[in-house]
Amino acid sequence: MVNMLLGVHCKKSDKVDLRTPLWNYISHNYSPSQAHEAAEDLTTVQAQRDEVISLTGSYAAQLDCERKYFRSLSMMESRFPISKDDHHVSMSFTWYDAFRPTKRSEHYSIHFEKACVLFNIGAVLTQQGLGCNRETETGVKEAAKNFREAAGVFGYMRDTAALRVEHPRPVDISPECAGMLERLCLAQSQECSYEKFCTDRKDAKTLAKLAKQVNIFYGEVLRSLGMPPLNAHFDRSWTAHVSVKAMLYDAEAWIQQGVCHGKETEANIQIACLREAQRLLAATRKEIKQVGKDLADHLKRLEDWAAKDYAAAEKDNNSVYLQRIPQSVDPIAGLSMAKGIIPDWTDATSEGMFASVIPDSSAKALSKYTSAVDTLIREQLDSLTHASDEARFKLRSWELPDCLQALDAGSSAALPEVLRKELEDLEDHGGVRHLTDLAAQIRDLRKVAQEELDTVTADLDKEAKEDGDLRDKFTNRWTRPSSAALTSHLREKVAGYEANLKAAGESDRRLEARLTEHSRTFSGLSIQSAAAQLPRLQAPMVVTGDLEPAVVVADLRKGLESISRLSSERAQLEEGLKQEKSKDNILPKLMACSGSPDSLFDQELKKYDPLKAKVAENVGRQHSLLNDIQKNQAAYRQAFGYDQWKQACDAAAGGIRGKLGLYIEVRDNMSEGLRFYMSLQEAIQALQQQAGDYILTRKLESEELMDAMRRATSDEARRQSEAAARQRAQASFADMGLGGGRPPQATGASQSYPPPYLGGSPAPSPGGTPSYSAMAQGSNYPPGPGAPRPNGPQAPAFPTQQTISQHYPGYGGPPGQSPSPYSAPPPAQGSAPAYPPWAAPPPQGQAPASGGTPHGSFALSGRSRSQMYGEIHF
């Protein structure tokens, strides 16, 4: 049979318009756009409160809604100051007392609202506990759990929201009432546990302790109800119920304790325990009328149980044990099975409400926390970086791990660092294969340059032959300048480039001969081959130190491996610090924090403590390892004679340096030759373009001249035909007797037979038919300055020597009168050109002008560039 338990009624409230005041506050203190962004959250909060005060739905649904609303209030608390003060949100909350429903309280405080919501959460949990079927094992467990959760909620309310409610503070949400309700829920949870243990038939000693703890909890509740302000607020039935429960479970504890002593054949002590139980039951009988029937039944059951056990124990003691009855017995110690469950749903950091509303105080606090985190991370990263730099510097100064690698056959550690880098660079560029490729490129460029020069020469010869054939055909009528006079400077350039190619070819053959001669030497210029030519570091035949060389080497290798592992750990620690910082978003917690943020900062910064400890441990371990490595490397150098071996390696590396120097000399000269041919090729291509333009112009000129001659021949034939017609007309006039032998003269501007005019043909001169020479002198070339121009349309003029010089300066004048288009500007003062600029050769018979462009050179085995490739004139 189970006893009646007490449940707490929920507080009731009036409706409140949350949305409008909060909307106005956001619009006024932030911006209308932020108010629009928060509109949905405002609607959600309003709906949550309306549902909370409706007190409808299942217990689970009510709890879920009330918990969500409480978290929403926590998000609002740090964003919206609710009070009667100016510039605050003026919004009042009205709630009615849970124990005296007619008492009404109104506060302009969000803490008051939170306290009332917490009270209702605890109340719903008590009602949910009452609804469990405690006659089943599952039901009694669920009931005990609900009461423990309710105790945790009331305890949380007592320590947080209840303390921040302003006076006059309602009694039902005062800290005193919250504490009393917490103890009441613990007492009822302990009572449920006792019922379960009785069902499980646990031993009497355990049951006595459990029952005593129920008495202790109810006793604490009774004392709270007897003190202000609760003594004047709660109904007498509460006090009577708690008082009866306390005495009943105290008496039941003594009965169970008596059972325990009876089983141990301690009848006298059992009788003393039962007398105490009967005394408590007699006192309970006086107050039983103020409580319900179930407690009266519980009292009757305990009285019958105590009387029965007392009679049996007294009979046994009088007839068997004859023991003296003690006046008092040791008190019973309680065994608590009930502990309040701290709410785990109060954290509002997971809520995303009002994200756009961030007060200045929160922004400043966040900036302060971010600065503290940045400082912490920077200090740890600086420690890790300093440790890495220290290890790298010390190992390099000790020549580690190179001095250990010198023990391995074919190791490059014996090579001086500068020589090793030069050999690495040589291998990266291909070694002797690189020289072979350079030689092949030079040959290809020389071949292409020669082919291009041959093409220019062939084109000029073809043009000169065509001009000669036309000159022979038309004799003195072919009046344009001859090709030989116009192409002399082009042919001089071709001759100069061919001379340069010939000189460069000689230098190429000498370089290729040297490459062939030293190819085998160059093939051996590798790190592996060079290392094989140096002496090898070996262990001494006789040990002179305290430690064996093999032990020293093993210790050094082990130390280096440990340093490498520590370096990898530092990389992981750096990444861990950065990741921890990247995901450290304290703003939601900061917005949900209702007190000073400093305690929150201290709590949040503690999550970096494990990483800080690992950083300190890593740095400390490395410092110790470096000290051990320093001692071991000193012993290693002494045991193996490392310094003497290093000197021998430096001496042996001299021959390798000589071979490398020869390779570099050949490579640089080939590179210079490659640049020479590339520059020469550019100049030849420009010459090809110039020759092509010249040939095209000559072809157009030839066609125009031939057209002019054809027109002149046609005009001459026409004039002769007209003259014959006139003669025939005169003869006809004479035969007709007109006399005079002359045709009648025309009057005015008219003429019986005007001379025909062909577009583009010159008008006939009054003196008769012009000669070809006159046509060429007067029509094909423009008249000189001051010469009269003929009237009427003019035939297109053929380009003269002057126009050719203007449009094609490369070949427009005789050599020596115009600068070469390839003459490079003089180099800056104090610097020598990497490659000699192209320069036109001086006219024949004329010495080059002083101060001309210097000719460059590149060195090969002590020769100047002019000695290898000769002076190259363009």
Automatic annotation (TrEMBL):
**Keyword Cytoplasm on entry:** yes
The cellular location(s) given in this protein's UniProt record come to: Cytoplasm; Endosome
Q: Where is the composition biased (Pro residues)?
A: 753-767, 782-793, 816-845
| Residue span, BRO1 domain | 3-400
Q: Which residue ranges does the record annotate as region Disordered? A: 711-874
Q: Which InterPro entries match?
A: ALIX_V_dom, BRO1_dom, BRO1_sf
Q: Which GO terms describe its cellular component?
A: endosome
* Keywords from the named record: Cytoplasm, Endosome
Q: What is its main location?
A: cytoplasm
Q: Which Gene3D superfamilies match?
A: alix/aip1 in complex with the ypdl late domain, alix/aip1 like domains
**Bias (Basic and acidic residues) ranges:** 711-721
Q: Name one GO biological process term.
A: protein transport to vacuole involved in ubiquitin-dependent protein catabolic process via the multivesicular body sorting pathway
Q: Which Pfam families match?
A: ALIX_LYPXL_bnd (PF13949), BRO1 (PF03097)
Listed Low complexity bias regions: 722-732
Q: What is this protein called in UniProt?
A: BRO1 domain-containing protein
What organism is recorded for this protein? Apatococcus fuscideae
Its taxonomic placement starts with: Eukaryota, Viridiplantae, Chlorophyta, core chlorophytes, Trebouxiophyceae
